[in-house]
Amino acid sequence: MMRILRWFAPGLHIKRWLLIAVLGVALLVVGLSLTFRINLYALLGAWLVENVAASWAVYYTGPVLAGIAALALGLVLAWLGVSRLVNSVLSTLMPRAGDVADAFLERRLLVRGPRVVAVGGGTGLPATLRGLKNYTANIAAIVTVADDGGSSGRLRTQYGILPPGDIRNCLIALADIEPLMERLFQYRFTSGEGLAGHPFGNLFLLAMTETTGDFYQAVKAASEVLAVRGRVLPSTLDQVVLRAELADGRMVSGESAIGKAGSPIRRVFLDPAVPEGGIRPLDDVLAAIAEAELIVLGPGSLYTSIMPNLLVPGVADAIRRSPALKIYVCNIMTEPGETDGFKVSDHMKALIEHGGFGAVRRLPGQHPPGARAAAQPVPGGGRRARRPRPGGLPDGRAGGRARPHPGGGGLRAARSGEAGPGDRAGVPRPAAARGPHPVGVLPVPTVAAGAFPPGGGWVDGRLPCAGGMARRG
């Protein structure tokens, strides 16, 4: 009872609008009874026209006229009271002016969006997520946990937690928060013993891990705090070390050391951080892949952001088994020390060798602004990468050209055919109804693209990938 009475405390701006709404509803009831001559007229309505009835005609029409007037006034008062009451409550809960109706409509539509899984890490995956969250709330971001450099590496060594940097960037990318809150989580301390170099968001995840006792629970709790649209999933909860075999025969350990080795990469693989440990995929990761309608790989560092997720046992197999449309978003610039001299077909070949995917359709990208001096545009030429064993998918050229999204940075889905009846923009058609092979989609400033279709398929509409590159670590 006391909880109910709290709503009537002074200064809440609720009582007045509640009273007006009740008065409006009462007038609606009276108006209906007068207009349609309900028995309520005999009990309550007669006095309204008693003194007005100068003649039988006036008496006969008086109740109807009074009823219509009561209906009109009741509608106005009820609408005014209810709308102001709702606005008073929501403006307190959602203080940003003008956001109530838009947020309500947006969230209603987003929860019915396609189920999308985005795989990657570093600075590329957050850029994709920022665009995708405008089209669907059913997003699962599968993030690498192999980072061992910068703030993430220090926290990993000192506290034994999984590297929080890439997780932090993805949480911020999917968050529905004020710009100031985003700046706070990305703020990097520049001085102070033990603090210098650490972003606040990394320390927040560390504190949340200490509070909940589990890194994954900490990520879930942070998602609630930041009002994240979708889910951020570490590919594994086990401590792992990314290792690379180089073309000169050397072995390099550690994600941060691979790009500095000075030799082409032959292959990468994961090892447990402790000899007796294992590497197990997160159950929610496998479930998200199995339920996905669309799986997006990249953009990002090929060997140090995308590959570590595929090397977790069970993840690549789950992606291969999934009936979802698979799109690889390839960097349009080579990455010094990692993909020097790579063509798009070299990216595809590396993915096939490490993940065992089928035939890939590719689409050359565009030159990004502000590219690093040592980076070069990725050529689109070369033979198509094929599955290294019999089987695979039919070959064919992808039609269409990639263009920057007119809204500024975004993935534009090109397609090699027209949409069939019943297609929803941005939603893959069921496998039985799919048409020609899909062609890729391009974000600016990062990509060329290709797609992994399980027996054909396409994407109709647009897949967003907004800009906004976050510093790693």
From TrEMBL:
Keywords: Cytoplasm, Membrane, Transmembrane, Transmembrane helix. Residues 359-437 are annotated as: Disordered. Gene3D superfamilies: CofD-like domains. It comes from the Bacteria. Residues 368-378, 422-437 have a biased composition (Low complexity). Its main location: cytoplasm. One of its GO terms (cellular component) is cytoplasm. It is found in: Cytoplasm. GO terms for molecular function: LPPG:FO 2-phospho-L-lactate transferase activity. GO terms for biological process: regulation of cell shape. Belongs to the gluconeogenesis factor family. Required for morphogenesis under gluconeogenic growth conditions. PANTHER family: GLUCONEOGENESIS FACTOR-RELATED, UNCHARACTERIZED PROTEIN YVCK-RELATED. This is Putative gluconeogenesis factor. It comes from Symbiobacterium thermophilum.
